[in-house]
Amino acid sequence: MRSPALRSAVGLGALALVLSAAAPTSAGPGAVDVPTLTGHAVLPAHTFVPATEPSGAQLGTEPINGVTPPFADQPLQGFSGIVRRGDGTYEVLSDNGYGRKSNSADFALRVNRIVPDLATGAIDVVGGFNLTDPAGHLPFPLTRPDRVLTGADLDVESIVRLRDGSYWMGDEFGPFMVHVDRAGRVLSPPVQPAGVTSPEHPDGGTPTLGRSKGFEALIAAPDRRFLYPLLEGTVTGDPAGTLRLYEFDLRTGAFTDRRWAYRLAAPNLAIGDATAIDANRFLVIERDSAQGDAAQVKRIYLVDRRDRDADGAVDKTLLVDLLDVANPRRLGGFPETFRFPFDTIENVTLLDERTVVVVQDNNFPFSNGRTPGVPDATEFITVRLPASLHPDPRVLR
């Protein structure tokens, strides 16, 4: 049953968002022989959060995929991390906005709450909050005097929620680990791994990592003792196509000395997100930078950090080819072979022991992987697996 539309104040600037909550529906049980699409829902590209100032002023005034910036309000886009709440709602993290530090100062960093309705194919936005630093924990000047964080301050790309309701986020500008409370307020100074510096680092210095190649994925151990942040790019001096998987101790708030190597299928690929199955196994999205018909690599791997084959890197097994998903019910009006052909696929989590949730970052207004010349909507899909992943029960809570 749908609740009436209502107006709610969200975020530090008393931003108003009209909400309409839809009852979530389950993807349902059922045996499948191959990875199969069981749910598809869409958030339109032209979805905005009311803002006090226009957004996208540094994008110029020429149309991009038929959309002319700047925008009177802030686009609700760029989902680069996901948290399943267990009540049918999901929290999705918007990254730095328009792709670069130089053009995203008018994009407020934000966590949005969404409810996908797989029966209707719609996604409702039911709230959210901006990220802020009122206590001054970030040791560099911020863009806004009210200390609302923007895409010129941090590029948050990954998120996990702890039992106390606080969040840890992985950033690409440091790269930093950032801890915020349930209202998005920074709780402590950011933490950076030794010897790794991004070209966008606020203090400058010699970069040892490519632009926008910081903590793209962040994995929480089922017992919430450790976090495992995964870089998107290769650190200078490491083998090409090899990424560092770090261990972060939540008790000490510091990186440990343990580290693993994640080896991409090819050096020109990138990871998009990751999530835990149990203490040793993860799901990792690996992708190329192409979209539409040109897309060739959009995959979910089952990863085991125990390195059972002793080759010096975590073990990987292809679990889902997102360009070849069975769709016998023709969900979303797509053919019997469903393709998820987007440039940046940056959200993965478990719905149950045999169902994976995947959402892409639509990079509004730039990406047009579904229809050339038209900005991508945000698509939320569920994929049923042929066999159970046997996850630790704590990751499904």
Low-confidence stretches: 1-28
Number of strands: 25
Biggest sheet: strands side by side, in what order? 3-25-24-23
Our estimate of the beta-strand percent is 35-45%
Helix content: under 10%
Computed Rg: 20 Å
Quaternary organisation? single chain
Mean pLDDT: 92
Number of helices: 0
The CATH class designation is Mainly Beta
Shape: globular
The CATH architecture comes to 5 Propeller
How would you portray this structure in words?
This protein has 397 residues and is mostly beta strands. It has a single domain, classed as Tachylectin-2, Chain A (5 Propeller), CATH 2.115.10. It contains no helices and 25 strands. A four-stranded antiparallel sheet has the order 3-25-24-23, with no helix packed on it. A four-stranded antiparallel sheet has the order 6-7-8-9, with no helix packed on it. The protein has a four-stranded antiparallel sheet with strand order 13-14-15-16, with no helix packed on it. The radius of gyration is 20 Å and the shape is globular.
